[in-house]
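Worked example

This section walks through a single chain of length 237. The input is the sequence exactly as stored; nothing has been trimmed or padded.
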Amino acid sequence: MTELLFRDDPYAKDCEATVTAVNDRGGIVLDRTVFYPTGGGQAGDSGHLHVAGGDSITIATAVKGEAPDEVVLVPAEGQTPPPIGATVRAEIDWPQRQRRMRIHTCLHLLSAILPYPVTGGSVGDGKGRLDFDMPELNMDKEEITARLNELVGGGHEVRARWISDAELAAQPDLVKTMSVQPPSGQGQVRLIEVAGCDLQPCGGTHVANTAEIGPVRVRKIEKKGRQNRRVSIVLDE
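Given that input, the structure is written out below as tokens.
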């Protein structure tokens, strides 16, 4: 089990940690981490492990381990993992993480503007998309872009809170995703609330206020099936 520092503080860029395991593929497990593992459409963080003594290991990505709340750091090809028990400083690629946080929060705003079931999605580096189960889209790129930027500029607070599995079961309308269900069975589920705009289960990392997202633009809208529309967005920098 790894202490997930990013869950409570997505702005934490590094932390001191101890190597607790190295798996047979060279994946590194720490007792605590700021690295977000791939999940919920959001890619795992990359970065570095700085080992006491001067060595530095490049981390290509992070993934979920077999145990609950276990995060495995995947070294880049050719890197040698540190020994179990080593003290390290784990440091993420912060500019990359921040762009993903901005996009992820903006996708929550997009799901509020288009209140249809979500069939898929992806959080990339400065870009992202959501797929919606809807026969037709009655807004064009310019209108959706304008509405997104209005919500972004509104400075809405973004905060996390928890509810029990039973509370979520009693409010099934909170779940917007059709293809991926929020994890249950651990007693509680994490919600992300964009004040006045959106509330849904999510384990990803987000900015603290929508104003941090900055200008965005709908890049394209695609028809991916009889009732499937894909809306792609990008940071307009």
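What to look for: Residues 3-92 form a domain with the Elongation Factor Tu (Ef-tu); domain 3 fold (CATH 2.40.30.130).
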